[in-house]
Amino acid sequence: MSLYQRLHEVQRSEGPEFASGRDPVLDELRQRVHHLLIDEVGPLLYDRRIGEDELRRQLHEHLKVILGREKVPLSTVDRSQLIQDLTDDVLGYGPISGLLADPEVTEVMVNGPTKVYVERNGKIIKSGASFIDENHLRRIIEKIVAQVGRRVDESTPMVDARLPDGSRVNAVVSPLAIGGPFLTIRKFAKDPFTVEDLINFGSFSRTVAQFLDACVKGRLNVIVSGGTGTGKTTALNVLSSFIPHDERIVTVEDAKELQLHQDHVLALEARPPNIEGKGEVRIRDLVRNTLRMRPDRIVVGECRGGEALDMLQAMNTGHDGSITTIHSNSPRDTLARIETMVLMAGMDLPVRAIREQMASAVDLIVHLTRLRDGTRRVTHVTEVQGMEGDVIVLQDLFLFDFGMGVDESGKFLGHLKSTGIRPKFGERLADNGIRLRPEIFAQEPFARRMAGAR
Fold it and tell me: What is the domain partition of the chain in residue ranges?
């Protein structure tokens, strides 16, 4: 077994507290060779006439020459691994390059130089990767954010960025990150999930997929809600795929993640302020601008603040069929969050006026939950029916049956079931030539129990 293999085995076996399994001689050699390599080939890294394959080949040649001058004895395997690691540092993202290339990894979480976690199959586990020290991790972070024209330092210790493939990046450095720096990368799927994928995953049934398809084609305003990491953006992407190809779609996002395959799509992305604190373009500015772009549909990646007011106004002024996502714990909490975000817009509106806007604008809430078994499921499909007094009336159309329990492996056996109640907006869909089949709302025993309990 080579030195590198032994070190990786130690890292995997020692657990989270592992911090001293690296070979200091090898680390010192790696740092020294890295600096020599940058000194010798620095100009090549910025020569756009050289392709990536040719650049990688030249780096390998230079590394072999540099290592030939060093006096540290290395086996053939160790030498090859060292060359690969140094190449990843220069051209890629260092120790996490392999994790980012792994299709089974959906998220990479770096909690300091020696603690790198990944999410696989909905579960968070510790990986065997680690950085040499904080400076090594800091260099990789600076490289990532520099690619999109951002910076991270003591004056700007938090930054959002994205990799060339669209993966979302968040980094926090000192003085805010104690024991850091911290780096979180949510990977961007090269082949985005389709409605068939979500059905196969058990996120919802084919019947619910047909119902949601009808709602989107019928130009209902839909909000996708849920907590962090519940799959809201994936669900939004799937719902957006139901939009007909002959409609003009404008998307607004903080960092571009949506992958729509319609022909007529205009993607807008917010911009943070520059070093001087100028030039910021907020989500709210973009939402307002979409109204001047003659959209058939407005799709907002996520409402986080005052843009919720502009989104409600768009939904209420002829832009039916708009879709957005919101962080919340339940459909009822979704409305409470929208109410709070509208107040964040700085408009001194009475609460009743805000609720009337919401009741008139929003037709359907699709709520997702990340369950204990790591799966992401739609747990509520809820209709917004209108106002009764000062309260917005919600009606669950589909609910997840938690009462079916779990199997031996801890996986939930339940699924989304109809409550047997038909939505009031069924008449609106019928007016648009879309008829909901009666069997969609066939009531199951669980739903009858729930209806009797209410």
Answer: 1-91, 95-188, 195-453
Eight-class DSSP state of 403: G
Q: Say how far apart CA 358 and CA 407 lie, in whole Å.
A: 40
Tokens of 291: 């109204």
Could you please report the per-residue DSSP string of 124-136?
Answer: EEE-S---SSHHH
* Cβ atoms of 410 and 373 closer than 8 Å: yes
- Given a contact cutoff of 8 angstroms between Cβ atoms, the answer to whether 406 and 377 are in contact is no
Q: In what order do the strands lie in the sheet with 116-120?
A: 123-126, 116-120, 105-111, 182-186, 168-172, 158-162
CATH of segment(s) 95-188? 3.30.450.370
Count the alpha carbons within 13 Å of 213 in the hemisphere toward its beta carbon.
17
pTM here is 0.78
The burial of 25, by beta-carbon neighbours within 10 Å (0-12 exposed, 13-18 middle, 19 or more buried), is given as exposed
The residue among 270, 264, 268, 335 whose CA lies nearest residue 296 is: 264
Instruction: Note whether 305 and 283 are within 8 A (CB).
Output: yes
Q: How far apart are CA 202 and CA 231, in angstroms?
A: 13
Instruction: Express each pLDDT in 225-250 by its tens digit.
Output: 999 889 898 999 999 999 999 999 99
Contacts of 20 (CB under 8 A, 6+ apart): none
The pLDDT tens digits for 62-108 are 777 777 776 667 777 777 777 777 777 777 788 898 898 888 898 99
- List residues bridging with 105 in a β-sheet: 120
Structural contact between residues 43 and 95, judged by C-beta atoms closer than 8 angstroms: no
| Percentage helix, strand, coil for the chain under 3-state DSSP, each rounded to 5 | 40, 20, 40
Using only C-alpha atoms, the chain has a radius of gyration, in whole angstroms, of: 26
Under DSSP, the state recorded for 46 is: G
Mention the CATH class of domain 195-453.
Answer: alpha beta
Any idea what DSSP says for residue 441? G
* Range with lowest mean pLDDT among 151-160, 293-302, 441-450: 441-450
Report which secondary-structure segment, H or E, holds 392: strand 391-400
* pLDDT band for position 265 (cuts 50, 70, 90): very high
